[in-house]
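Translate sequence into structure tokens.
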Amino acid sequence: MKQTLLAATMVILAAPLIPAPASAGPLETACLRSDRAQATRSLCRCIDSVAQRTLTRAEQRRAASFFRDPQLAQDVRMSKSDRDNAFWARYRAFGDAAEQSCTGR
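Result follows.
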């Protein structure tokens, strides 16, 4: 009984040391679900990694929606809204950074 309790205690104490499985971010998921032939797991993961460093979570979700509906990207790009223009500038910076970081994957 003492050995079982000790073993259970050790498992509970060790649990925080076990890393949680990584989950795909919104851009990685959208990239992998796209019908683009060059959308490899490695490339999609790299793009998502850059997005996590350069865009907020809400901006990542918005950018991921462009994979499902490219017209949304065109609408934002052509928008006269200051908010959309600011997002588009950050999105372009993200795209430039992703291109530099992820080329060749």
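Note: Residues 1-21 have pLDDT under 50 and may be disordered.
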